[in-house]
Design brief:
The structure holds two protein chains of two kinds. By secondary structure, chain A is mainly beta. Chain A has helices at 26-41, 346-352, 418-423, 433-439, and strands at residues 77-79, 86-90, 93-99, 102-105, 168-170, 175-177, 183-185, 194-196, 367-368, 382-383, 414-415, 429-430, 451-457, 469-471, 473-480, 483-488, 498-504, 511-518, 522-529, 539-545. In chain A, 7% of the residues lie in helices and 17% in strands. In chain A, the strands form six sheets. Chain A has a four-stranded antiparallel beta sheet, with no helix packed on it. Chain A has a four-stranded mixed beta sheet with strand order 5-6-7-8, with no helix packed on it. Chain B is α+β, with helices and mostly antiparallel strands. Chain B is 17% helix and 25% strand. Classes of the chains: A mainly beta, B alpha+beta. At the A-B interface, strand 15 of A face strand 2, helix 1 and helix 2 of B.
C-alpha cells in the first residue's frame, strides 16, 4: 500500500495486524513484505541514488536557518521566508533574494562571464564604491558592437542610462564623468558640466548661454553678428562710450548729429530753440526759417483774428467773412468774374461791363462777363435779357432820353395832352384815362361805352358786294328777302348788347326793322318797307353797343 | 367777289357776304367755317354767278355744297404770331 498524501505508510489492512496466537503464514508474509518493499522502493535513498521521481517539498526554514542547509553548516542554504520569495543565506545572512520582481544580490556581484541585461540596468550598481577595476568590459554587455571581450570600440545607448552618480572614466580622461555630474572631454578633472580640453566643434548651439564667459571676443571671434541675433550687424564703429539701446532712459551723448531720417515720436524736451533747418508744414512746422511780428501763431480755427493784419496776401479765401471795410479799407479792382466791375470809376465800370462810358445804357449795348451781374437770366455772356428793379430805382431827368417808344420799340413814352388826343395825329404820345375822354370829344363825366361792332351795307344784294364799311363784322348773311344776319368778327361777351339798326331806301321812303335773334356771335334782323312787309333795303346801318 | 352759300333749314339758300376786314385777316374759308351754321355744307362761289331772282326761288342741291361744313365754333381760330 503506498504512502498517503501526508507521506504516512500503513501495512495492508486485510492481513494486518496479525491476530495473537495465530500462525503467520507465507501468504501474510509474502504480501506484507512485498508491500513494505514497494514503499521502501518509493522513498529517497540517503545517498541520493535513484533520485526523486516527484516534487521535493521541504520545510520553509528561515534566513537564519534555511530549509535547505548543510549538515556542516545549517545557516547556509535556501529558505522560503514568505510566499513567492526564495532567499539564499550565507552564514544566516541574506545574500540573494528571488521574488516576482526579480533577483536582488546583497554584496559584491562578481561575474566572470557576460552580464546580459536585455531589460536594461537600473539600480543594480548603487554603491558609491562600486568600481569596476581590473579586466575589461565586454562592449556587448552594455550595448557595444564587439562581441569579444576587450576594450569596446563603440559605445552606444539606445535607451536612457539612469542612475549612477559615480565616476565614469573612459580612456584615462578621454571621456570623464565625475561624481558631481561634470563631464570632461580630454580631461579627468572637469570643473563644469562640460569641460573640453581642446577644440570643440558643433553644427548648432542652443541654450541661453547665460554665464558664458571668457570668450576671446576681441581676438578670437570673427564675422558679423546680425542684429536679429543680438549683434549690431556691422563690423565697424565710430565714437566711444556705451551702446545706446532702444529703452535707454536718457540719451546724453553722443548727439544725434545729422541723421538723414528718424522717428522722434513721443520725444519731449527737444531744444527747439537752438534747432536749425526748416520743419515742413506737412511735418507740423511752418515751412519757413524767418518770421516777423510777435505774439502767438494763428491757427485755422482761431476764434477771432485781431492781429496781425492780413497785409497783402497773394491769395486767400474769405468765405463768410463779414465786416470788411469796403468803403475805406479795400483797394484795387474786383474782376467781373468775381462779381465786380473790374474798374475803379463809374465810366470805367460801364466800359468794363460793355456799355458806353456815358449816356443811356441800352439792352444791346450792355453786356457782361460770365457772371449774372446785370440783367442776365443765365450765367453766360451776352446782351442784357431782363432788368428787374424792386424799389429804389430813380432816374434823373433825361436819363432815358433818346429811347422813345414806338409800335416796335420798348422805350420812354410821353403822355399826350387832351388837345393832342383830340387832334389824333401824334404817333409817339400815350393816351391817359383823362385824355382819352378828350380824344373822344366826350365832355362831362358820364361813362363812355364803345361800339363793339358796326356795319353799313346794301341790303338789296342783287349783286352781292362787300359792306360799305364795317368794324368787327366778319360777314353779312342774307337769309332771304329782308332777312339778314350780322356775324361778329369777335364774339360779344354776352347776348345782352344793344343793336341800333337803321334802314332806308331813299330820303323820302321809310323803312322799319324787326329783331329776330341775338347771340354772342351774330345778330339777326328783318327789314320792312313802310307798309311793314319784308323787303330788301338798300341802306342798312347797324351798330352794336355793350 | 366771292360769297358763301348754304341751305337753311327752311330750304332757302343763304348768301354770306364776307367783309374785307375779315377777308384780310382770315380768308374766306375761315369765314365760311365760322359764320355758316354748324353742320351745314357750304360752297364758295363767285357773286356774279348768283341768280338775279329772289333767293326764295333758288334751289341748291346739297351735293353741290362741297367746299366744307360749318364748324361748331363761332370764333376764328387763334392766329399764330
Amino acid at each position: 500500500m503506498p504512502r498517503n498524501g501526508s507521506g504516512v505508510y500503513s501495512l495492508p489492512s486485510a492481513t494486518n495486524p496479525v491476530v495473537t496466537a495465530t500462525t503467520i503464514t507465507s501468504t501474510w508474509a509474502n504480501s506484507t513484505l512485498t508491500d513494505v518493499g514497494d514503499a521502501l522502493t518509493g522513498s529517497v535513498a540517503r545517498d541520493g541514488s535513484g533520485g526523486m521521481t516527484g516534487a521535493l517539498r521541504l520545510a520553509d526554514g528561515s534566513i537564519a536557518v534555511p530549509g535547505i542547509a548543510f549538515s556542516a553548516e545549517t545557516t547556509t542554504g535556501l529558505s522560503r521566508p514568505t510566499t513567492n520569495v526564495l532567499v539564499g543565506s550565507v552564514g544566516g545572512i541574506e545574500k540573494l533574494r528571488l521574488n516576482a520582481s526579480g533577483a536582488t544580490v546583497t554584496g559584491t556581484l562578481g561575474v566572470t562571464g557576460l552580464i546580459t541585461a536585455t531589460g536594461g540596468v537600473s539600480g543594480a550598481v548603487t554603491s558609491s564604491s562600486a568600481t569596476i577595476t581590473g579586466g575589461t568590459i565586454d562592449g556587448t554587455a552594455i550595448g557595444g558592437t564587439t562581441a569579444a571581450a576587450g576594450a569596446f570600440t563603440t559605445l552606444s545607448y539606445t535607451s536612457t542610462l539612469t542612475g549612477g552618480t559615480g565616476v565614469i572614466n573612459i580612456g584615462s580622461g578621454q571621456l570623464y564623468k565625475d561624481a558631481s555630474g561634470n563631464v570632461g572631454v580630454g580631461t579627468a578633472s572637469p570643473t563644469q558640466k562640460l569641460d573640453v580640453n581642446g577644440t570643440a566643434k558643433a553644427t548648432t548651439f542652443s541654450g541661453s548661454a547665460s554665464g558664458l564667459t571668457g570668450l576671446p571676443l576681441s581676438t578670437g571671434v570673427s564675422g558679423t553678428l546680425p542684429v536679429a541675433n543680438g549683434g549690431t550687424g556691422v563690423t565697424s564703429s565710430t565714437g566711444t562710450g556705451s551702446t545706446v539701446l532702444s529703452n535707454s532712459p536718457t540719451l546724453v551723448s553722443p548727439v544725434l548729429g545729422t541723421p538723414s531720417s528718424g522717428n522722434l515720436s513721443s520725444c519731449t524736451n527737444i531744444p527747439v530753440g537752438s534747432a536749425t533747418g526748416t520743419l515742413a508744414v506737412a511735418n507740423g512746422g511752418t515751412g519757413v526759417t524767418t518770421s516777423t511780428g510777435t505774439g502767438n501763431n494763428v491757427l485755422s480755427t482761431s476764434p477771432v483774428l485781431t492781429t496781425p493784419n492780413l497785409g497783402t496776401p497773394s491769395a486767400a479765401v474769405l468765405t463768410s467773412a463779414t465786416g470788411l471795410p469796403l468803403t475805406t479799407g479795400v483797394t484795387g479792382t474786383l474782376p467781373i468774374a468775381n462779381g465786380g466791375t473790374n474798374a475803379t470809376t463809374a465810366p470805367d465800370a460801364r466800359t468794363s461791363l460793355g456799355a458806353a462810358a456815358s449816356g443811356a445804357v441800352t439792352a444791346s449795348g450792355l453786356t457782361q462777363g460770365t457772371a449774372r451781374l446785370l440783367g442776365r437770366t443765365t450765367a453766360s455772356t451776352g446782351a442784357v435779357e431782363e432788368l428787374t428793379v424792386g424799389t429804389g430805382l430813380s432816374l434823373s431827368a433825361g436819363a432815358l432820353a433818346g429811347v422813345s417808344a414806338s409800335d416796335t420799340v420798348v422805350g420812354v413814352v410821353e403822355l399826350a395832352t387832351s388837345a393832342e388826343a383830340q387832334t389824333g395825329t401824334d404817333t409817339t404820345r400815350a393816351i391817359t384815362p383823362s385824355t382819352l375822354r378828350g380824344g373822344l370829344n366826350a365832355s362831362g363825366t358820364a361813362p363812355i361805352y364803345a361800339c363793339r361792332a358796326w356795319v353799313n351795307f346794301d341790303g338789296t344784294l342783287s349783286t352781292p358786294i362787300p359792306p360799305r364799311g364795317n368794324g368787327n363784322v366778319s360777314s353779312v348773311t342774307k337769309n332771304g328777302t329782308g332777312d339778314y344776319t350780322l356775324n361778329f368778327g369777335v364774339g360779344m361777351p354776352d347776348a345782352n348788347y344793344a343793336a341800333l339798326v337803321t334802314s332806308q331806301t331813299s330820303i323820302t321812303a321809310s323803312a322799319l326793322t324787326r329783331f329776330v335773334s341775338a347771340t354772342t356771335s351774330n345778330y339777326r334782323f328783318l327789314t320792312t318797307d313802310s307798309a311793314g312787309g319784308v323787303a330788301n333795303i338798300e341802306y342798312i346801318m347797324v351798330g352794336i353797343f355793350r | 367777289m366771292q360769297v358763301i352759300i348754304y341751305n337753311q333749314d327752311n330750304g332757302i339758300p343763304a348768301v354770306v357776304v364776307p367783309t374785307q376786314e375779315a377777308l384780310d385777316a382770315h380768308g374766306i374759308e375761315a369765314i365760311a367755317l365760322k359764320d355758316v351754321p354748324f353742320g351745314k355744307p357750304f360752297k364758295i362761289i363767285d357773286a356774279a354767278d348768283l341768280p338775279t331772282t329772289p333767293q326764295e326761288t333758288w334751289v341748291v342741291n346739297d351735293a353741290d355744297l362741297t367746299d366744307g361744313v360749318g364748324a361748331e365754333s363761332n370764333e376764328f381760330p387763334e392766329v399764330q404770331p
